[in-house]
Amino acid sequence: MERLAIIGSGDLGKLISYHAQADKHYEVIGFFDDTKEAGEMISGHPVLGKTSDIRSIYQDRGFDCLMVAIGYKHFEARKRIYEQYVKDIPFGRIIHSSSYIDPSCTIGNGIFILPGCVLDHNAIIGDNVLLNTGCRIAHDSEIKSHSFLSPGVCMAGFSQIGSCCNIGTNSTIIDNIKIFDNVQTGAGTIVIKDISESGLYVGNPAKFLRSI
Question: Was domain 94-199 assigned CATH 2.160.10.10?
């Protein structure tokens, strides 16, 4: 079993650690966290060091692959850290065994797919994406890198979500919709037209609320 190190030891890091082991994907070695001291224990695993220690510990064969556990409130950091290490160090994937992923799907690296998700024919999931519990991605749709989908998001066919988007709980995106980068939707938002400007959108149908 490959040994996984996780960047970030907060709530998302703990969740990745739990599913990595409980669903038998990886042996979790520990965390890298710039806000903690090396040796501190988090959910039974040690803090290995700061992010500045990642390369040296990897070169010393301290772990086999990485995952980023920086959440949707810090998209720029999430993207920057992934891109900083992806050329030199392998990134893992956790796809929960209860999820259905059609064999035709294209799945990136560093992704975290939680229980009960469904990805239909020819869906594309970019790098460093998180799909929370019960997301449904219909045929020929795409989610670009670093984005988060909250529980219960429903995405119809031939639609696209851009990079660094945060799609709120139970949001629905109808078919043939394009959502550009850096968009957030509130819980229960219904998207029936393309969204071409970054910002927070809420309601049925989705309306621009404010810049983010």
Answer: yes
